[in-house]
Amino acid sequence: MKIAALLLICLTFFTFQTSFAVTTEIAFDKDSFMQEGLGLLKSSLENHLKDTGLAGNSECPESGLEIVEKIESKKGTLMNATASVDEIMLSVKPKVDEKQADTSRCGTCQQKNLVSYLASINPVKIRPVVECESMPAQTFVADLKDKEDIKRYTENTLQGTNSEGKQMAKACPSPCSYYVTTAQTPLNNGKTHLTLTVQCGQPRKDSVLTADYDFKGGLVHQWVCSK
Q: Other CB atoms closer than 10 Å to residue 102's CB: what's the count?
């Protein structure tokens, strides 16, 4: 009986060690993962361009899209996330203004530009676990009237207090973390078209209050050429 119990203990210990080794050796390429989110956001912005009614002309150069990443970056905690994103977007504004005035893409045709502020947020240090592999990602869009509306919508979604957030929280249980790529597109009617791509991925290493996050800012420039 004692031998059987000892064998059971050894087997349990071996199983735990094997499980632990698998958990800590999960391959996770954070940059590639964030590029997947950027791809989802890009597709959403291309669809939004069609909805604006901006259309090219067959006699003109083709419409296009350019993504400029990492114009500005900084590290910070989620407690200061709104301030960090605002600071990054302010730094990106001169480049956004430059792209909005660009006329170099269409030759003798008229060029119309749609430029979006781009930001991404992800934890610096992670602790990979099996249960957070191959989790879902979703993109939410909304036309909002001002910065307070944008802040409120984003926070409610990421905190799971609106319908979109509850939907995402259900699909991304603890301990998995959110990885966020977002774009703000100023519209002619004074509103801003918000595109919010949320990926469910590997957990941050530290607590939500102390974990460092990477905040990166850039832009997405779309243009159409017409007569």
A: 14
Q: Which helix (H) or strand (E) holds 4?
A: helix 2-24
CA distance 174 to 171: 10
Q: How big is the chain, counted in residues?
A: 227
Inform me whether the pLDDT recorded for 15 exceeds 50: no
Query: How large is the average pLDDT for residues 162-173?
Result: 94
Closest CA to 215 of 151, 121, 125: 121
Determine the pLDDT at residue 25. Answer: 53
Structure tokens belonging to residue 54: 């901006």
Single-letter amino acid code for the residue at 10: C
pTM score, two decimals?
A: 0.84
How far lies 77's CA from each of 92, 140, 145, in Å?
20, 23, 27
Candidates 82, 4, 26; CA nearest to 201 is 26
